[in-house]
From TrEMBL:
The keyword Metal-binding does not apply. Pfam families: ABC_tran. It comes from the Bacteria. It comes from Shouchella clausii (Alkalihalobacillus clausii). One of its GO terms (molecular function) is ATPase-coupled transmembrane transporter activity. One of its GO terms (cellular component) is ATP-binding cassette (ABC) transporter complex. Residues 3-243 form the ABC transporter domain. This is ABC transporter domain-containing protein. InterPro entries: AAA+_ATPase, ABC_transporter-like_ATP-bd, ABC_transporter-like_CS, ABC_transpr_CbiO/EcfA_su, ECF_ABC_transporter_ATP-bd, P-loop_NTPase. Its main location: membrane.
């Protein structure tokens, strides 16, 4: 789904004080992208993405998500939220049903879908997130942290959203669980031609998975571009208080600031670059 923010500002009241969380946000992101929203704490990242399915509505300006324009078309919020799935940070803290099957199928049952159809769809969603069908009858509270996170995501995927928005999806997960989770998101995007928006503090995840990046600073986008361009913009990184991905930081030390380094997604691309560089020096 195409997304457009048009001069968006968002204000809220905090103990009698007006706080401007977003101001003058204008950006365009085409459908089908894996978007990373980055920035320091308090930069407006979560506030920005909560406008994508109408959890928050602009104080000024408009947000266009597909063919829905907010706040003008507030009557379209319910159908929009079926198309835009939102996963909060630590979503496993919101699990409450007695079985995984009931947890995943809860939204469908609330929409009047039959128990049989809800159970069938829940099983399919569990498969999508890479968990075995045997877990359908298990209590979600007996699962590992990574499994709970996947069940929470499956409960959003049952509606087959065209856009999936996740706030810090890798927070608190061990490296293997985080890798599996991000691979799940990549697979869902490819299989369903969906857009993925992720709020993250991990520049390694941005470099490895994202193909579009929104750098937030003081409630407004500082830069909206591909990660390769963002990580080459030293002034932007400094202003937004962002570090280089580990692969690029290592490469920077390796050349001792002599010359420039290319965009390096991960350890594998770093290794290739070091080998090529060594060969070129012989």
């Amino acid at each position: 789904m195409d997304v457009a923010f048009n001069e968006v500002s968002y204000e809220y009241n905090d103990a009698g004080t007006t706080v401007q969380a977003l101001h003058g946000v204008t950006l365009r992101v085409p459908a089908g992208r894996f978007v990373a929203v980055v920035g320091a704490s308090g930069a407006g990242k979560s506030t920005l993405v909560q406008h994508l399915n109408g959890l928050l509505l602009p104080t000024k300006g408009t947000v266009e998500i597909g063919d829905v324009c907010l706040p003008e078309q507030k009557k379209q919020l319910q159908p929009l939220r079926k198309k835009v799935g939102f996963v909060f940070q630590y979503p496993e803290h919101q699990l409450f049903e007695e079985t995984v099957e009931k947890e995943i199928g809860y939204v469908l049952r609330m929409q009047g879908v039959s128990k049989v159809e809800a159970a069938k769809t829940a099983a399919a969603a569990l498969h999508t997130v890479g968990l075995p069908p045997a877990l359908l009858s298990a209590s979600p509270f007996q699962l590992s942290g990574g499994q709970k996170r996947r069940v929470a995501i499956a409960s959003v995927l049952v509606q087959q959203p065209k856009m999936l928005v996740l706030d810090e999806p890798g927070a608190g997960l061990d490296p293997a669980s985080k890798e599996a989770l991000f691979q799940l998101l990549c697979n869902y995007r490819q299989t369903n031609n969906a857009s993925i928006w992720v709020v993250t503090h991990s520049m390694d995840d941005v470099a490895k998975y994202a193909d579009f990046c929104v750098v937030m600073h003081n409630g407004t986008p500082l830069m909206v571009d591909e990660p390769a361009a963002v990580f080459q913009a030293g002034d932007v990184l400094q202003t937004a208080k962002l570090a280089l991905p580990k692969a690029m930081a290592f490469a920077q030390k390796a050349i001792a600031s002599k010359g420039t380094i290319p965009f390096l997604r991960d350890a594998a691309t770093l290794a290739d670059w070091l080998i090529d560089r060594k060969g070129g020096q012989q």
